[in-house]
């Protein structure tokens, strides 16, 4: 399935290139690119997790950034008490994001369509304000994380390259998990429910349970992305889980192409690239336009929806003879 | 006493002030094709939806194989052997026919909290699904996307999906809706074959088809069953003639 | 490899290589990265700073010693992680010698590690959270502003001296807001009869009707507020519209500044006239460097510079003094550091020194809102509250 | 006039009636502003099934246009009239050029496009008017206070309340007494029916969209003399307006009205009394920190509760499912 199409081959090449990125960036002596890539890949994990519920499950969450924040605080708060054990951080991330996803999911999954969007927004805003009010952990100003999560030496996160491979590994695992998931029995129920939930129920599926499980899996994956983000930025503040951040995640998914495996990766890469270089491009056109880069960005967003169905993945797939998007 | 597979007692359903089902009694005998006929708006689909669990009745009880299922969810009823097809084609359009039927197989064969193995590698499920497709004559179209096949084929797919659930009672909501003469005849043949496998409760407007297929007939008017008997007896029934058949076959 | 993947991989390579061109360092220049906010409503502060930085570079003729100044402005978008990303770019790709700027504490906290870990110098032109003044202090960090607590402490001191017995306090609900309130509480000897922390952040609260009603009914003798940026203007307006100027005198820090005053004047909100605030600097401060800065800024932009602008101007001048003192040898970090620590330049606030934590030890003045000769609303120094004041966190700093 | 006392777990809080009335008026004012935004939003949502995140941009644009005209002519009335016309026109243009193409696509597309529109409008305002924001001077008479007994209220806040009520009344008449209103009501509860009636649906959508934009702009004009016009001012309030729409019931103007008042009052009362309440059970410091966040959270808690227990909203439009 993967390398069967032209776009599949492009993605395979892309993954190999990403795997070699630390060597490439050190060869061309541009360590900053590795930072940029690290950030893009972390966001790609988050966007892929969102894609699992949004692209495959049809659940549009406008509150997914909350899990990024939860994951990052699961590093930041133990670190605040000088607990740097990485397994504790990881375990806490999984437990907290899973419990939060489960408890809110019990209510969220009872709603549909726009109500779903609004209730996910509501819960993420509650998390946002909770962390704003936690004066002990920096409130609005956030927490500086002095040391990265500590893992055994073969799994260490110290140094830009080691952290990059952690992130890269996590991304590959996430993509693999989602790939297997979507075509497993479980995944078929999720995909089926996206298009016709009533029918799925009459086929004998308790769709509520399956969708809830899917929502929890997605939350945990995004939580792990948050844990990596905390380690990468060495800093966490509530601002990172505001609703506009959730909007950006949706944007990344759609820009890359929803319900395609590599769409979120492509989308986040494009997003991070634009965020970094659009201001520079504007500056070269006219030095005083530096601050106006949101304008072409917004225009792009509008055009993407009006004219660019299927996102970047969509138009890559158009090179394929049969087109594997679904 | 005959073996009754479904027994509906004093069923009532109202939406606001409108009574869609009024004191409805119905008994379906195992092995029969039992057709329900009635004018538009008589509450046929409402009845089916209550039997399959999409709608909760206001009062009354539904027994399936002597167990009270009135409070069970749709999914639980489906797993216990009660399948339905929909009047408005209701398949998962972006998936292939095979994938659709496999969903039906999956729904009634254990839980689906299995996250890793691709379904397509599950030979048992693939062959079970192919069998159902073969029974409705769609085996050659298995890899087509549901949205891209003809309306008649989608209706057949509906039946194949219901069949794949290995139901003991099949609720068919106008399987021939919108079909041409040839397609209808094809469907009649399919249903005749199905009769050997399970009991069928059929709602259908196509009277020719009903008379060809049904063992028992119930006439539903204003949410109430006014008569229930063999086809011959119903044809002879004056009241039914007046209430329903008379209008159509005058 | 088929055609498409070739196109894709070669374009990735092209992008990568184009970056090499951007990143190539010029040997005979001093590179300064300046991070501030140029988008979102907070851009009004960032632009004031940008204008001041450009003026500073103009004043030194575009050269520091014999090195050309290569200035790279970056926009943090008011977001800590973007600020960090831009800082990483400055440090790793542009390989700048100094990183300066930073309006917001959270952006500075997120970014400082990147700069300091790479051994470069960090000059904060505004943010001064207590952590950086205390536990987190670093030998390569310098501030041209102040520590958050100092300015409100000066205000508390003044109020106590004036014999004000009770005070109502309002500030936004974030770290700087709490620092400001903590500062005034440290030195104010009267009673604080009410306190409100209002919602801050991207969707900050701008309608203070509920809080003002509470303040009024509290019977306090004065109201102390801290509302930076656009919230300041909004607060003053509502303060006047509620008719509080007659019953509840206004004392502010970082609220009534050169950004808010022109708009207040535009709205003819005379209630602010005569209100008192404290600051380490004022446009009328009688220092030669300040006269030149304010005069040229006024001439060029037809508005008074804000304190943000003044600090940004100083950050460039501080760097300039270090580059000149070391004869342009930026590799000698110790020499650069020593030169910066000496603060041997003509600051707009006059001569000041650095404490162990590299926060300025400086004067704090009481200022009053007045109208200047040209009819513009501005601030005038009426008293000196503190002379050579050091922040209370210096003791926590291990340097 | 400190009279009655409420009993809370053995401690007592004196009730300052003047303060309470002032706060209720403040809540009413906020609620009416929210209504001006939410009524347009709920109609666009209910009739066109279009999620318009950029509805708040009209709020901003209205304020800037008004401010510009006021600074040129010196007349607040002129400013409001010109700005109303301009926001109507811009609303119409957005409908014609962009929104119209999207009514049939899914909500995700709406969210993305209108998010893009927010960025475009914010940057355009930044380019045209600069980042500094814009003050709108009020005539002297509106800058003062009104004394009613011992009660002192800012005059301009009363103006906001009266204008809000007036617009609400006009809208009520429009929706319940005119042919356009009949179509709007029908559209909100059953879209296909209106289409089947052979109404020029394009024209109806255009008018509803533009009127919604105008009301949003009017709200911006009303608040700007208090808070100033600034970039992104609409993005702050639009999310709350969405909460109002959901709580009131999508497509229901009446629902928007009551939900807006509930949320306006809840927010104001929360801000004024929550810290005192929390101090009864928590330390003063914790209460001061938690209260603002908690009162900001209140509206979201309300929305989550409504969605969980009454997803169609508190006052769904009549006849809708």
Describe what you observe in this structure.
The complex is a heterotetramer of chains A (326), B (250), C (399) and D (321). With 326 residues, chain A is an all-alpha fold. Chain A has helices at residues 6-19, 21-27, 31-56, 65-80, 86-108, 113-133, 160-183, 185-195, 197-202, 207-233, 243-256, 263-285, 294-307, 311-317, and strands at residues 143-144, 235-236. In chain A, strands 1-2 form a two-stranded antiparallel ribbon. In chain A, helix 11 crosses helix 12 (263-285). Chain A is globular and about 60 Å long. Chain B folds into 2 domains: 1-81 and 169-250, P-loop containing nucleotide triphosphate hydrolases (Rossmann fold); 90-166, no CATH class. Chain B is 37% helix and 25% strand. A 6-stranded mixed β-sheet of chain B has the order 6-7-8-3-9-10, sandwiched between helices. Chain B has a 4-stranded antiparallel β-sheet with strand order 2-1-4-5, covered by helices on one side. With 399 residues, chain C is of the alpha/beta class. Chain C folds into 2 domains: 27-146 and 286-362, Response regulator (Rossmann fold, 3-Layer(aba) Sandwich); 150-279, Response regulator (Rossmann fold, 3-Layer(aba) Sandwich). In chain C, 42% of the residues lie in helices and 21% in strands. In chain C, the strands form 2 sheets. In chain C, strands 7, 8, 9, 10, 11, 12, 13 and 14 form an 8-stranded mixed β-sheet that branches. In chain C, strands 2-3-1-4-5-6 form a 6-stranded mixed β-sheet, sandwiched between helices. The longest helix of chain C has 21 residues, at 3-23. The model of chain C is unreliable at 1-11 and 13-26 (pLDDT under 50). At the C-D interface, helix 2, strand 8, helix 8, helix 9 and helix 10 of C face helix 1, helix 6, helix 9, helix 10 and helix 11 of D.
In terms of topology, how is this protein built?
The complex is a heterotetramer of chains A (about 325), B (about 250), C (about 400) and D (about 325).
Chain A: H1 6-19, H2 21-27, H3 31-56, H4 65-80, H5 86-108, H6 113-133, E1 143-144, H7 160-183, H8 185-195, H9 197-202, H10 207-233, E2 235-236, H11 243-256, H12 263-285, H13 294-307, H14 311-317
Antiparallel strand pairs in A: 1-2
Chain B: E1 4-15, E2 18-29, E3 33-37, H1 44-52, E4 59-64, E5 67-68, H2 74-79, E6 82-84, H3 97-107, H4 123-135, H5 151-164, E7 169-173, H6 181-194, E8 199-203, H7 207-213, E9 216-221, E10 224-230, H8 231-236, H9 238-249
Parallel strand pairs in B: 3-8, 3-9, 6-7, 7-8
Antiparallel strand pairs in B: 1-2, 1-4, 4-5, 9-10
Chain D: E1 2-8, E2 11-16, H1 17-48, H2 55-73, H3 76-97, H4 107-129, H5 140-143, E3 145-148, E4 151-154, H6 155-177, H7 179-189, H8 191-196, H9 201-227, H10 233-248, H11 253-279, H12 284-309
Antiparallel strand pairs in D: 1-2, 3-4
């Amino acid at each position: 399935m993967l390398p069967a199409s032209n776009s599949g081959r492009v993605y395979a090449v892309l993954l190999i290139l990403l795997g070699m990125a630390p060597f490439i960036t050190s060869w061309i002596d541009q360590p900053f690119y590795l930072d940029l890539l690290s950030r893009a890949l972390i966001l790609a994990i988050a966007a892929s997790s969102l894609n699992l519920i949004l692209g495959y499950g049809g659940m549009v969450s406008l509150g997914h950034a909350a899990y990024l924040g939860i994951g990052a605080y699961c590093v930041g708060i133990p670190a605040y008490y000088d607990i740097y054990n990485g397994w504790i951080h990881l375990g806490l991330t999984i437990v907290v994001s899973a419990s939060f996803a489960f408890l809110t999911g019990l209510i969220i999954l009872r709603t549909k369509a726009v109500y779903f969007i609004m209730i996910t927004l509501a819960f993420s805003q509650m998390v946002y304000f909770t962390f704003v009010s936690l004066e002990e952990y920096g409130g609005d100003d956030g927490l500086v994380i002095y040391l990265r999560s500590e893992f055994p030496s073969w799994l260490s996160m110290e140094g830009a390259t080691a952290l990059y491979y952690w992130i890269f590994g996590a991304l590959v695992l996430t993509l693999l998990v989602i790939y297997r998931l979507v075509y497993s029995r479980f995944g078929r129920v999720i995909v089926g429910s996206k298009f016709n939930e009533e029918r799925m129920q009459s086929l004998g599926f308790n769709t509520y349970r399956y969708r809830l499980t899917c929502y929890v899996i997605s939350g945990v994956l995004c939580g792990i992305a948050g844990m990596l983000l905390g380690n990468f930025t060495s800093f966490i503040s509530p601002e990172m889980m505001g609703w506009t951040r959730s909007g950006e995640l949706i944007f990344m998914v759609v820009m890359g192409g929803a319900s395609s495996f590599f769409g979120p990766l492509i989308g986040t890469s494009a997003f991070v690239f634009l965020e970094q270089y659009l201001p520079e491009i504007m500056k070269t056109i006219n030095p005083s336009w530096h601050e106006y880069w949101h304008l072409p960005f917004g225009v792009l967003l509008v055009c993407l929806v009006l004219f660019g169905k299927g996102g970047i993945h969509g138009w890559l797939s158009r090179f394929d003879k049969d087109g594997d998007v679904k | 006493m005959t073996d009754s597979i479904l027994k509906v007692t004093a069923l009532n359903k109202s939406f606001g002030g409108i009574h869609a089902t009024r004191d409805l009694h119905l008994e379906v005998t195992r092995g029969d094709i039992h057709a329900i006929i009635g004018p538009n708006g008589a509450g046929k689909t409402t009845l089916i939806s209550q039997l399959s669990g999409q709608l909760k009745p206001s009062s009354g009880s539904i027994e399936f194989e002597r167990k009270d299922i009135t409070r069970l969810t749709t999914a639980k009823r489906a797993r216990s052997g009660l399948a339905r097809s929909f009047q408005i084609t209701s398949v998962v359009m972006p998936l292939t026919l095979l994938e659709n039927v496999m969903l039906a197989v999956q729904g009634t064969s254990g839980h689906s909290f299995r996250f890793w193995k691709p379904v397509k590698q599950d030979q048992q499920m693939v062959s079970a699904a192919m069998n159902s497709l073969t029974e409705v004559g769609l085996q050659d179209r298995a890899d087509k996307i549901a949205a891209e096949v003809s309306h008649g084929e989608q209706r057949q797919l509906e039946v194949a999906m219901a069949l794949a659930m290995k139901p003991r009672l099949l609720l068919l909501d106008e399987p021939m809706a919108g079909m041409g003469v040839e397609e209808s005849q094809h469907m009649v043949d399919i249903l005749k074959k199905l009769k050997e496998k399970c009991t069928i409760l059929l709602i259908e407007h196509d009277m020719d088809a009903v008379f060809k297929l049904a063992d028992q007939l119930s006439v539903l008017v204003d949410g109430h069953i006014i008569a229930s008997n063999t086809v011959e007896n119903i044809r002879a029934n004056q009241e039914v003639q007046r209430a329903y058949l008379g209008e159509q076959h005058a | 490899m088929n055609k498409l993947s070739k196109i894709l991989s070669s374009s990735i390579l092209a992008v990568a290589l184009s970056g090499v061109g951007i990143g190539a360092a010029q040997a005979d220049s001093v590179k300064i990265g300046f991070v501030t906010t140029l988008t979102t409503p907070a851009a009004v502060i960032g632009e004031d700073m940008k204008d001041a930085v450009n003026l500073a570079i103009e004043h030194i003729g575009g050269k520091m010693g014999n090195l050309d100044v290569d200035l790279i402005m970056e926009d943090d978008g008011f977001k800590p992680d973007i600020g960090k990303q831009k800082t990483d770019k400055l440090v790793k790709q542009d390989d700048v010698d100094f990183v300066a700027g930073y309006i917001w504490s959270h952006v500075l906290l997120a970014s400082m590690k990147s700069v300091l870990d790479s051994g470069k110098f960090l000059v904060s032109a505004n943010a001064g959270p207590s952590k950086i003044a205390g536990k987190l202090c670093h030998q390569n960090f310098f501030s041209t502003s102040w520590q958050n607590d100092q300015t409100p402490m000066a205000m508390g001191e003044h109020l106590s001296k004036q014999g004000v017995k009770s005070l109502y306090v309002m500030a936004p609900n974030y770290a700087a807001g709490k620092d400001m309130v903590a500062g005034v509480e440290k030195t104010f000897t009267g009673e604080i009869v009410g306190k409100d922390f209002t919602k801050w952040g991207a969707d900050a609260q701008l309608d203070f009707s509920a809080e003002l009603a509470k303040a009024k009914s509290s019977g306090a003798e004065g109201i102390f507020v801290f509302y930076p940026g656009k919230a300041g203007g909004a607060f003053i307006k509502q303060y006047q519209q509620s008719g509080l100027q007659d019953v509840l005198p206004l004392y502010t820090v970082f609220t009534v500044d050169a950004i808010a005053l022109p708009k207040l004047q535009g709205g003819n909100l005379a209630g602010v006239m005569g209100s008192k605030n404290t600051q380490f600097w004022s446009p009328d401060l009688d220092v030669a460097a300040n006269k030149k800065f304010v005069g040229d800024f006024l001439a060029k932009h037809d508005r008074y510079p804000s304190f943000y602008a003044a600090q940004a101007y100083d950050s460039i001048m501080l760097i300039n003094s270090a580059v000149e003192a070391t004869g342009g040898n930026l590799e000698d970090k110790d020499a650069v550091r020593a030169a910066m620590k000496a603060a041997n330049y003509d600051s707009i606030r006059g001569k000041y020194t650095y404490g162990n934590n590299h926060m300025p030890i400086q004067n704090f003045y009481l200022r009053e809102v007045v109208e200047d000769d040209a009819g513009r609303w501005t601030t005038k120094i009426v008293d000196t509250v503190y002379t050579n004041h050091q922040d209370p966190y210096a003791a926590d700093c291990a340097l | 006039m400190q009279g009655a006392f409420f009993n809370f777990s053995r401690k007592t809080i004196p009730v300052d009636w003047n303060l309470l009335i002032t706060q209720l008026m403040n809540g009413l004012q906020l609620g009416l502003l929210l209504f001006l935004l939410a009524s347009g939003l709920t109609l666009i949502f209910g009739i066109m099934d279009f999620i318009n995140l950029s509805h708040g941009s009209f709020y901003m644009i209205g304020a800037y246009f008004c401010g510009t005209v006021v600074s040129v002519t010196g007349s607040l009335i002129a400013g409001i009239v010109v700005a109303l016309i301009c926001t109507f026109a811009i609303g119409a243009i957005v409908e014609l050029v962009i929104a119209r193409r999207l009514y049939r696509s899914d909500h995700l597309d709406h969210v993305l496009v209108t998010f893009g529109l927010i960025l475009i409008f914010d940057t355009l305002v930044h380019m045209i008017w600069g980042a500094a924001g814009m003050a709108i001077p009020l005539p002297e008479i509106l800058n003062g206070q009104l004394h009613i007994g011992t009660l002192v209220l800012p005059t301009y806040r009363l103006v906001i309340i009266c204008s809000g009520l007036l617009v609400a009344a006009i809208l009520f008449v429009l929706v319940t007494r005119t042919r356009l209103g009949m179509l709007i009501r029908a559209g909100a509860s059953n879209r296909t029916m209106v289409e089947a009636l052979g109404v020029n649906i394009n024209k109806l959508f255009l008018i509803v969209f533009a009127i919604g934009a105008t009301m949003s702009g009017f709200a911006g004009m009303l608040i700007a003399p208090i808070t100033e016009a600034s970039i992104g001012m609409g993005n702050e309030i639009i999310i709350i307006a969405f909460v109002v729409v959901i709580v009131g019931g999508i497509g229901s103007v009446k629902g928007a009205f009551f939900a807006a008042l509930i949320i306006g009052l809840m927010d104001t009362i929360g801000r004024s009394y929550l810290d005192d309440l929390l101090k009864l059970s928590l330390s003063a410091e914790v209460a001061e920190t938690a209260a603002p966040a908690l009162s900001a959270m209140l509206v979201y808690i309300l929305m989550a509760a409504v969605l969980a227990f009454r997803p169609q909203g508190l006052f769904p439009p009549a006849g809708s499912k």
